[in-house]
Each structure stands twice: as structure tokens, then as C-alpha cells.
Write a structure and sequence with these properties.
The complex is a heterodimer of chains A (433) and B (251).
Chain A: E1 3-5, E2 8-13, H1 33-44, E3 60-65, H2 72-76, E4 79-85, H3 105-116, E5 128-134, H4 142-180, H5 186-190, E6 193-194, E7 199-200, H6 203-234, H7 239-252, H8 256-270, H9 277-301, H10 305-313, H11 318-347, H12 350-353, H13 383-393, H14 399-429
Parallel strand pairs in A: 2-3, 4-5
Antiparallel strand pairs in A: 1-2, 3-5, 6-7
Chain B: E1 5-14, E2 17-27, E3 32-36, H1 43-50, E4 60-68, E5 71-72, H2 79-84, E6 86-89, H3 100-110, H4 116-129, H5 133-136, H6 149-162, E7 167-171, H7 179-192, E8 197-201, H8 205-211, E9 214-219, E10 222-228, H9 229-232, H10 240-246
Classes of the chains: A alpha/beta (433), B alpha/beta (251).
Chain lengths: 433, 251
């Protein structure tokens, strides 16, 4: 019986073998190519129907010429002739090449014998191999195999790159948590900094960060969302809208330190707010505004235009359409954009540095007053600035304190992002079309 | 009697491409008015002029007058009021991302109807008229977008009827609907003719023959011929082109 070699059936041929006809194994090879092909046909023809059986799970046949029986060495150093048969082929017979396969196995084998008749006494010289690939129902050609290979390589490369992205995040988090482990406790969160910020907790800057984030978003979110609605739903395409779009895009690319200087000029000095929570929050709002506008517009644009047309058709006004159809279906995207700006506002140091953050201020750490320690015209501590201060400006701060502050800051950002992801997944599961 | 809709020398262009050229015709009240013609002949543009959805087409310019009743639609004060007088069904069904009930109740609500009982009755009537009631009566609170394509098409017909229009425009309404349902809707249209004027754009010449009292034949943005259905389908319409088109040996 033929010997499987990979996913092909291997038949051996040898002119110098025994006199009696073999069965195609390496030990008892066929005596010539012609005999081999007729044996192959006989082996694979279905007695009942006279049809050739489909070679499920195999790709085809290998006919190998060996010098002497059982000489595997010559099998591995073969010169190969490849031919192709495609029983599914409809239409003209090809020439046996991959692009133009033969249409049936019987004709193919006859043609191969014809092609190789001149080669040697048995149609092949030792060390040569004829590979006949049969495109069965499950076997693909070289193009298919290459496609599958590319597919596998591509997905592997993409998976590795993705893993490389996750790696730094995990590494940073692990490192920070390990370093901060000794100080992390409820006390660390709820106590104010003590003894020139070399001990105690981070309550005052933590509350300050919440102040900055929520006040800035309270300013930026309504303005940004309304502007996004106007730009996407009402504004017609003209030079003014193009100018606004350009401004929004450029504003998003302005470095945060430039926003800080703008904040000093516009809010601290010109508007007369002084260095205060309000001035700093306004500066943060200006910084987060362009991204909120952009994400709002994207969320609105994702609602199919046909919905709007259908509503207008029925006599609904633009605002009715926006209120009843567009906004309800865009709200998840809009809110995600807004929530993501929380992490931006919480993490930035530069914009609040000159406009409202303070190095140290003593605030109550007991009772209700500790939750509202700052007034809008006070300056406030913030986590990001506090981290900068205890890492570079104050001497004698334990490493644990520094890393603990970093862990809280990064934990805040990660948990806000996580909330937005969960929110988005939840709303997407309720998607209505 | 005054015509219900009148086009007076209407020319519509999208940029430089002319979609309708000097169209003048009158559509009488309480008739089914068929519009036939090959692709790209301006049939849909014709409908969009009636309820001014042409406003939303980028770069479209309109000359001439379109009168609904005695009112020039391009000079009307309140375009929303105009659109509420006209029910419009476009060929691709768009179910709004609302429940089946809310889909049909949308337009009446936007027009200020809040009475639950009245809405319930209206929704049922419209869904029955669109031959959809039996299929959706047990799932009115399901999303309209989850209905099948043919059901969504009938949902849009129900929606078009929901604001009790005086004119109903149908653009290829039967494209996603099976023949049996199409016949049901056609019967409904013949009933509705008592209450409203129906403008029916169709590629199915036989459908126009079955339903329309008058037919306009558009070709290459021009009005070739308008006349009673029997004349258009007779051995001697005014234009040889019409004769060829309705018999399918056109071009």
C-alpha cells in the first residue's frame, strides 16, 4: 500500500528493482512510470461506479523514482516535477500547470507518462519525483497555501505587537504598586499631607484633583456637546464652518503648557479670576473642549443619515429629529468622549501650574468640611502637581509616598477609562439597528 | 376642479446635471397618478419636489413652481406643515430605531398628538392599511429595525399614513415586498384614493396599469407624455416612445 508522506500518497518506482511487479512501496517499487500510473488508477477507481474517488484529506500523489529499492536517501534529494489536476474544473483542459490544471486524473496520468517517456527507461531517472496535486474538495493549491500562511503570519505579528502594547502598562502598574505597597492604605487616602509633606496622606490633593476635573468638565462638556451638535447637524458647509473645524483641530494639538500660558493671560489676569480653582478649571476646559467637540461630532455622524431623512419626511423639524432620534442613539459615544477627558484633565500638570494649583495648603481633614476644603477663588492642591512637588521639590520624602501618589493618580485614570469602556460595551449591546 | 398638485415649468438640476427639464403637469384630486420611466429619468426628483426633500440634496437648484393646492411649495412659510400634508415612501425601507408602535406614532407625536387612546387607534389603523397589523400586533413594543425588509417597507407606508396626509407619494414601494402583500397594499391604495391623492412612481409598468387613473411617462429628464392610463396603454399613445416602453421593447 502507498505510504503517506505529509498529506500526499507516495508511490515508489525503480527500474532496478526485483523482476516481479511491486506495490509501490519503497521496498517493492513499481517497475516503470507507466505501470505506476495504471496501478494508481486501479487503486483509486471505485469498483461500483467506475469513477475515481475523491481524495479526502490528501493533496495528491507523489511518484518517486528510487535508484534501488528502499533507498530513502534518493527520495529526499529529489528533483521535482509538479502537475495539477482539478476535478471540479469546468471547461477546457489545461496543460497541467498550476494555473491551467488538467480536468481529470486519468487524462493527467496519461499525459504525465507522455511527457516523461523520453526521460529514461521507466520515465524517470533516480532521484526524480513527480508530484501530482489533486484539487479535491478539501485541498487547496499553492496560492491558497500561501494565503493561509500569510494569514497565520499576519495574525501572529499583530498579536505580538498588541501584547507589546499591553506589556509596558502592566509593567508600569506592577512596578508602581510594588514600590507603593508599604504606604497604600485607607489612611494614605484620607489623611492630609503632614510635616512639610514628608508624611501623612494625599487627601487634600486628591480632593483638589476632583475639583479641577469636575468643574472643568462642567464647563467644557455642555459647550463642547452643543457646539458638536451644531457643527454636525445644522452648520452648512461654508468657509466659516471650515474655519471652525480647522480651529478645533488645531486647538486639540496645542501643547498643554501653551494652554497654561493662555489661561494665565485670559482667566487669571484678563478675566480677573486670579490664581484660583475657577481659573485653572477654565484652562482645563479650554484644553479638553476640542476633543469633546470632535468626539461628539463623530458620535452624531455615526447615526445613519437615512434616519434623519425619514423624520424630515414626516414633517419633524431638525431639532425634533435631533432630540428624538439622533441624540438618543449618539449619547453613548458622546458620553464616552466626555468621560475620557476626565483622565486627561486629572493627569495634566502644566495647565493648572500657573493658574490655580498650590504647592501646599492646610485644609480640614475631619468631617464634612474635609470634602469641600476649597472655594472657587481659592487655590487648590492637585495630585499631579503634588506628585511633582514631593518627587523633586521636597527633600526627605519616602519613596513609598511618591509611588503611592503615582498609584492613586494612575488608578484614578485607569478606573475612569474602565468605566467608560464598560459603559460603551453596555450601550453597544443595546444598539438598535 | 382645481388640480391638487401642479408643476409649472419646473427644472431641477444637481450642479450641472439636469434631472428634470421644463416639467408642466397637473395631478387631479383623489386619483392615483402613476409615474413611469426608465432609471435616471427624474422620477424620484419629481417626488422630492412635492414635499421639498429636494432641499436636502446638495447643490440642487429648482426653477419654476410646484403648487400643492394653491400654495407654491418653494415659497411656503412652514415647510414642516407642508411635509405633514404629504406622506412619502421611499424605495429603501428605513425603520427608525424605535419600537414598531413608536415608529408609527412618531409623526403624530411630533405634530403634538399625545392622547394615548387616539394614538393607539391611529397606530392600528395605519398598520392595518399597510397590511402589517396581523404580523406585528403582538410585538408592537419590539424594535422596528428588527423587522424583516419587507415588513420595514410596510412600516414606512404605515408611517407615511400616520400623519393623515392629503397626498401620498410612493416611490417603488413594492421593491422589497412579496407579490401577495403587494396586492394587499394595492387594494388599500384603491380604497385610500377616496381620501387622498396618490402619486405612484413605479418600475412595474403593469402595476401602473392596474392602479393609475393617469400616467406620466418620463424619459431622460423630460416629460414624454401624460394622459389617462387607458390611452397610455392603448395601441395609439401620443408618442411611439411610450408605446415601446410600456411593451418592454424600449431602447
Amino acid at each position: 500500500m502507498p505510504e503517506p508522506s505529509g498529506r500526499t500518497l507516495l508511490y515508489a518506482i525503480s527500474a532496478t528493482g526485483s523482476d516481479e511487479e511491486g506495490d509501490g512501496t519503497l521496498e517493492r517499487p513499481f517497475q516503470s512510470l507507466e505501470r505506476a500510473t495504471s496501478a494508481v488508477l486501479a487503486l483509486h477507481r471505485d469498483e461500483a461506479t467506475g469513477q475515481l474517488r475523491t481524495l479526502t484529506g490528501t493533496h495528491g500523489f507523489d511518484l518517486v523514482c528510487v535508484g534501488t529499492p528502499a533507498n530513502r536517501r534518493s527520495v529526499s534529494k529529489e528533483r521535482r516535477f509538479s502537475y495539477y489536476v482539478d476535478p471540479e474544473l469546468v471547461g477546457a483542459d489545461g496543460d497541467g500547470s498550476e494555473r491551467a490544471p488538467w480536468a481529470d486524473l486519468e487524462g493527467a496520468l496519461t499525459a504525465i507518462v507522455g511527457i516523461h517517456r523520453e526521460q529514461g527507461s521507466n520515465g524517470l531517472t533516480p532521484g526524480e519525483r513527480i508530484h501530482l496535486r489533486v484539487h479535491g474538495l478539501f485541498a487547496g493549491g499553492a496560492i491558497e497555501r500561501r494565503k493561509q500562511l500569510v494569514e497565520r503570519v499576519a495574525s501572529a505579528v499583530l498579536a505580538v505587537v498588541t501584547a507589546l502594547i499591553v506589556l509596558p502598562l502592566v509593567a508600569i502598574l506592577a512596578y508602581l504598586v510594588a514600590k507603593a505597597w508599604p504606604v497604600l492604605s485607607a489612611d494614605f487616602l484620607f489623611q492630609n499631607p503632614q510635616t512639610y509633606m514628608t508624611s501623612g496622606g494625599i487627601w487634600a490633593p486628591l480632593v483638589g484633583t476632583f475639583y479641577f476635573v469636575f468643574i472643568s468638565l462642567a464647563i467644557a462638556a455642555p459647550i463642547g456637546v452643543l457646539a458638536g451638535v451644531y457643527l454636525n447637524e445644522y452648520a452648512s458647509e461654508n468657509w466659516l464652518t471650515r474655519l471652525v473645524n480647522l480651529a478645533v483641530l488645531n486647538l486639540a494639538g496645542v501643547p498643554s503648557i501653551v494652554h497654561a500660558l493662555f489661561g494665565v493671560g485670559a482667566f487669571v489676569l484678563f478675566a480677573g479670576l486670579g490664581r484660583s480653582v475657577l481659573a485653572a478649571s477654565c484652562t482645563l476646559a479650554v484644553m479638553t473642549l476640542p476633543v469633546i467637540i470632535t468626539s461628539t461630532r463623530e458620535a452624531l455622524a455615526a447615526v445613519p443619515f437615512a434616519f434623519r431623512e425619514a423624520c424630515w419626511n414626516m414633517g419633524a423639524s431638525r431639532w425634533q429629529t435631533i432630540r428624538t432620534i439622533v441624540l438618543p442613539n449618539a449619547i453613548s459615544g458622546i458620553l464616552t468622549g466626555v468621560i475620557l477627558q476626565v483622565s486627561r484633565a486629572a493627569g495634566e500638570t502644566a495647565p493648572i501650574l500657573f493658574t490655580g494649583a498650590v504647592f501646599y495648603v492646610a485644609v480640614p481633614d475631619q468631617g464634612l468640611a474635609s470634602f469641600f476644603p476649597y472655594a472657587l477663588n481659592d487655590r487648590a492642591m492637585a495630585l499631579s502637581y503634588h506628585l511633582f512637588a514631593i518627587s523633586t521639590q521636597v527633600t526627605g520624602v519616602s519613596e513609598g509616598l511618591q509611588y503611592g501618589t503615582a498609584v492613586v493618580l494612575i488608578g484614578l485614570v485607569v478606573s475612569v477609562n474602565l468605566i467608560s469602556i464598560i459603559f460603551r460595551v453596555y450601550l453597544r449591546s443595546r444598539k438598535k439597528w | 376642479m382645481d388640480p391638487h398638485i401642479a408643476f409649472r415649468d419646473v427644472t431641477v438640476a444637481y450642479g450641472t446635471k439636469i434631472a428634470l427639464r421644463n416639467i408642466s403637469l397637473e395631478i387631479p384630486r383623489n386619483q392615483i397618478f402613476g409615474i413611469i420611466g426608465p432609471a435616471n429619468s427624474g422620477k424620484t426628483t419629481f417626488l422630492k419636489c412635492i414635499n421639498r426633500m429636494i432641499d436636502f440634496a446638495l447643490g440642487a437648484t429648482v426653477e419654476g413652481q410646484v403648487l400643492v393646492g394653491k400654495e407654491d411649495v418653494f415659497r411656503t412659510r412652514n415647510v414642516y406643515q407642508l411635509r405633514r400634508r404629504i406622506g412619502m415612501v421611499f424605495p429603501l425601507p428605513v425603520g427608525l430605531p424605535l419600537t414598531v408602535y413608536d415608529n408609527v406614532a412618531y409623526a403624530p407625536r411630533m405634530a403634538g398628538l399625545t392622547n394615548r387612546g387616539e394614538l393607539d387607534g391611529l397606530v392600528e389603523t395605519c398598520l392595518r392599511q399597510a397590511a402589517l397589523w396581523d404580523e406585528v400586533k403582538d410585538r408592537l413594543q419590539q424594535l422596528g429595525t428588527k423587522l424583516s425588509g419587507g415588513q420595514q417597507q410596510r412600516l414606512t407606508i404605515a408611517r407615511a399614513l400616520s400623519h393623515r396626509p392629503e397626498i401620498l407619494c410612493l416611490d417603488e414601494f413594492s421593491i422589497a415586498v412579496d407579490p401577495v402583500t403587494t396586492m394587499k397594499i394595492e387594494d388599500v391604495l384603491i380604497d385610500l384614493k377616496q381620501k387622498m391623492t396618490i402619486v405612484l412612481v413605479t418600475n412595474l409598468v403593469q402595476q401602473a396599469h392596474r392602479l393609475a387613473d393617469q400616467i406620466a411617462f418620463l424619459n431622460g429628464s423630460r416629460l414624454v407624455e401624460v394622459g389617462p392610463s387607458d390611452t397610455i396603454f392603448s395601441e395609439h399613445p401620443a408618442s411611439q416612445m411610450t408605446f415601446d416602453y410600456v411593451r418592454g421593447n424600449f431602447g
